[in-house]
Amino acid sequence: MRHIFIIFAHSVTVVTGSELATEALPNLPDPSTLADLELHAAELEVDDDTNCHVDFIVAAANLRATNYGIDLADRHKIKQLAGRITPAVVTSAAIAAGLASLELIKVCHGSSKN
């Protein structure tokens, strides 16, 4: 069973997922009040230390590491990795699009070979 760690200023509380859900459900808003809710994407800016983006990523990554029993990472290492995410995603998408285009060219030319 996985546990969720809730960290306060000076203590750590461990609760199970079902306990957390039981406590959270009464505090959720009525779905009808969310009809006009608009979400706006925020750009990840890892070089700006005033927006707390990196702090959130560090906290989430270290909580996940604790949950799975792997080594924690420091802020600098996580900031460095977060800066590489966008170029990696763009490169992977470009490779996939290129390979799909090659397959489309094969189909258009009537090639039945793999």
How is this structure best described in words?
- Helix 2 crosses helix 3.
- Helix content is 51%, strand content 9%.
- The chain has three helices and two strands; from the N terminus they run ββααα.
- The protein starts with a strand and ends in a 6-residue tail after the last helix.
- The model has no long low-confidence stretch (mean pLDDT 77).
- It has helices at 17-24, 53-68, 75-108; strands at residues 3-7, 12-16.
- Strands 1-2 form a two-stranded antiparallel sheet.
- The protein has one domain.
- It is mainly alpha-helical.
- The radius of gyration is 22 Å and the shape is extended.
Précis, in short:
The chain is mostly helical.
Summary tags:
extended, 51% helix, 9% strand, 114 residues
**Main pleated-sheet profile:** 2 strands, antiparallel
Portion of residues in beta strands equals: 5-15%
By DSSP, the count of extended strands is: 2
Number of helices: 3
Overall mean pLDDT stands at 77
Q: What coarse outline follows from CA principal-axis ratios?
A: extended
Rg, Cα atoms, Å: 22 Å
Count of folded domains: 1
Spans of at least 5 consecutive residues with low confidence: none
Tell me the distance between the termini: 45 Å
Relative helix content: 40-55%
Report the structural category: mainly alpha
Order of helices and strands: EEHHH
